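Researcher: Final request for today, and then I'll write up notes for the group meeting. The sequence and the SMILES for zinc ion follow.
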Amino acid sequence: MEKIISLCKRRGFVYQGSEIYGGLAGTWDYGPLGVELKNNVKQLWWRMFVQERDDMCGLDAAILMNPKAWEASGHVSGFSDPLVECKKCKRRFRADQVGEKCPECGGSFGEVRQFNMMFKTQIGATEDAESVSYLRPETAGGIFVNFKNVVDSFHPKLPFGIAQIGKAFRNEIAPRDFVFRSREFEQMEIEYFVRPGNWEEAFEDWRNEVHRWLAAVGIDASKTTELEVADGDRAHYSKRTIDFEFEFPFGHKELYGLAYRTDFDLSAHAGASGADLSFLDDSVEGGGKRFVPHVIEPSFGVDRTILAILASVYTEDELGGETRTYLKFNKAVAPIKAAVFPLLKNKPELVAKAREVYSMLKKQVPQIMWDDNGNIGKRYRRQDEIGTPSCITIDFDTLGENPELLDTVTVRDRDTGEQRRVAIVDLVSIIS
Ligand SMILES: [Zn+2]
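Model: Predicted protein-zinc ion complex:
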């Protein structure tokens, strides 16, 4: 884990939040390569689960919501962790994560109390009970409150889903394990609305979709397990929940969740808001009945996805008699798809040709990097470490020194280290 964190910082994937001020616990900043990786993950997800399907639509709801929505969903009264405070040093801990004594000073704890994990804030200039709002603790709430809007605008047929990607905030008592448990994070959530009698089929479909996603994004299937959440451990409204767990370097922990939530959410919001959130099912199968749809919720954390990918692709091996570290990203998520090098940086004709190839590629595959620093071996190592699948070198043969090789380049493969000669015109199809 330390190796991954150190590589992430050194190569610009993830930095500690507000680092020059000593940091801010539970926050992380994605650097130049981290944001590319993160955007690739989100775009792939959006494409697979929204754009490529006929039964899904997207949404981008506000982070701040009317606090009544969080009262209806049960977050104001019940979204809490058990908290204990050390009587001696006043440090606070999650009661289920410590023993009888303070791990910092050995002092004894006061009584366990429930600590609400929502970040409270004030809307507008007045500070009274009326102006209280919260940073959303999950993106799902925004989907449920827009259910009626989407139905009225698009008249979808059941089953259909609404997807959203966005930031969520939880005031974790003990943020830990790098980006695994932080106070500000990003979610990719789907609420999939079904007829009550069809939930099992939809649940199974989404379970398969989660596996398809794991493969597409490059998370090691051998490190992933499904945990059927037992009756007593599920939320009271959920009839079935599966946690998809991943073998992180710090242990087996939840990566994704898949839950059948019945009609709990829509009914709660209908009751609290007075809005009619029922659905008129005028299909042949529905027979004109009006009812509140049930929901299957696949929930994906962006940051946990990034961490599971990093843990899956981090590789140390030996190449050409030297040990090396590289990230075995698949092409879809690799932050840089290819790097372009002139063989020598002091030969203007090589540099000019390499610039030409670089510009041509960059127009079609934007995630391309230029590197002319140091010898070729060092450039390869640098690209390996950030997971660039292909390195393209422009040499004298490219310029026609050997006429048969005019307008060809070498493409070196990250995983095998093998080089092959390919025509410049074929590069786009190779790297994209
Ligand atoms: Zn203490």
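Model: The longest helix spans residues 32-51. The chain has a mean pLDDT of 96.
Researcher: Thanks, that's everything.
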